[in-house]
Design goal:
With 394 residues, the chain is α+β, with helices and mostly antiparallel strands. Helices cover 44% and strands 11% of the residues. It is globular, with a radius of gyration of 21 Å. It binds protoporphyrin IX containing FE.
Length: 394
């Protein structure tokens, strides 16, 4: 990645060298390495990835999330030259343009709607776990974590299950390219794939997500085909890789912490509380915002046009509210905050709860095959490269 020359407005005291994709420690201790940035200045600057600021104090994250006039979502991917090419609805929009699209997603993924698919998510989960039980081992990321959210996506969109392989390949090329295809080509494949379904559902709408997207209103007009394609691909890109890696980070913790696992399996800690605490403990999304005007922000002289990263992994276990109630439990920053706060969080929570319940019922005891061999990748979503698990077959 390209390193930038330190601009004259950046004071030496705020410079750190941190490559969110490749800083060495991230590969062996992903959260620990991010947490290492806490405790210093609230905002630091790195020359890596074309040069950008990094917010390091979770207590100031809300000020960034809640002020889109100062911290714009027009570019959210770092480095900024890559981010400028990512033009997705509604992630790279600011209010007021963002709002009508966001209302569509809020309706689509409201808690009551998500509840209606819980039986089918549970069924897929059970089928996947049941198939693994007799083997006594699995590579959790490939054999389970990558399967579940893709099955859920295809079923929400009412797309054929046989296409999971190719959809996964194109989706992977947008989030973790293997060099075989550019981001733009991967998007084009996904758009072309969705095209006939969008046309067909416009004629004969059902109750699936594609039908609801094509028949939704933006202000006082219908969503266009192009917007429906964008929104569909946005759901895939935002809703699969995050869940894959959340499950992998969470199961790594469960494999390393038998006491925690037993507390959940025995019912001592309820599934919903356990899922929420796991979500709070392994945040994994690092995106950015574009600074819109010169401002002194917690000691950092930000200039209009600068990029600032808001890395949720350094907010692990940080809660914005105190207490034991649901509001406090859910006040972590794993799903972000403000107008772009994850609209898929109700679905993600449900997936987490169902997986914990059904997996621990069938495989309550498991361990890592190679405890010293776990490796991570930094980036927009923190990746667990592989998670080989083993258990006794009775
Ligand atoms: C554990 C799983 C998940 C995590 C950690 C996560 C995290 C996040 C975060 C931090 C943001 C805010 C980005 C920003 O501020 O710019 C976000 C936005 C978003 N997420 Fe999630 N997410 C998860 C699951 C999902 C799921 C399951 C879906 C849908 C199927 C989804 C769809 C979206 C969409 C569409 C946005 C953009 C919202 C907007 O720009 O208004 N996410 N997610």
């Amino acid at each position: 990645m390209t390193a930038a020359v330190q601009p004259s407005h950046v004071p030496d005291a705020l410079v750190v060298e941190f490559d969110m994709y490749a800083t060495l420690g991230l590969a062996t201790d992903y959260h620990g390495t991010w947490l290492g940035l806490r405790g210093g200045p609230d905002v630091v600057w790195t020359s890596q990835n074309e040069g950008h600021w990094i917010a390091t104090n979770p207590a100031i994250f809300d000020e960034i999330y809640q002020d889109p006039g100062l911290f714009s979502s027009s570019t959210i991917i770092l480095p900024e030259s890559h981010g400028e090419a990512h033009n997705l609805i509604p992630t790279t929009m600011d209010p007021p343009e963002h709002q009508p699209y966001r209302m569509i997603l809020n309706r689509l993924m409201a808690p009551a709607v998500i509840q209606t698919i819980s039986d089918s998510v549970r069924q897929v989960t059970i089928e996947l776990v049941d198939a693994l039980v007799p083997h006594g081992e699995c590579e959790f990321t490939v054999d389970f974590a990558q399967q579940l959210p893709l099955h859920v996506f295809m079923s929400l969109m009412a797309l054929p299950k046989e296409d999971i392989g190719k959809v996964k390949y194109w989706s992977d090329q947008t989030t973790h390219p293997d060099g075989s295809m550019s981001f733009e080509d991967a998007l084009k494949h996904l758009y072309d794939y969705l095209e006939p379904y969008i046309r067909e559902r416009r004629q004969n709408p059902g109750d699936d997500f594609v039908s609801q997207l094509v028949t939704a209103q933006v202000n006082d007009r219908r969503v266009t085909d192009d917007e429906a394609r964008h929104l569909s691909v946005q759901l895939l890109i935002a809703g699969v890789d995050t869940v894959v890696n959340f499950l992998s980070h969470a199961f790594l913790r469960l494999a390393r912490e038998p006491e925690l696992r037993r507390t959940i399996a025995s019912g001592e800690q309820s599934i919903d509380v356990a899922a929420e605490k796991l979500l709070a403990s392994v945040p994994l999304v690092t995106i950015g915002r574009r600074v819109m005007r010169d401002v002194d922000f917690h000691g950092a002289p930000l200039k209009a046009g600068d990029m600032i990263a808001i890395p949720t992994p350094l907010c692990a276990n940080y809660l914005r509210h105190e207490g034991e109630g649901v509001a406090a439990l859910r006040s972590h920053l794993t799903f972000g905050s403000g107008v772009h706060q994850c609209p898929g969080r109700h679905l993600a929570r449900m997936e987490a709860e169902i997986v914990l319940e059904e997996w621990l019922k069938r495989i309550p005891e498991f361990e890592l095959q190679d405890p010293d061999g776990i490796r991570f990748q930094g980036g927009i979503v923190g990746v667990v490269e592989a998670l080989p698990l083993k258990w006794s077959v009775v």
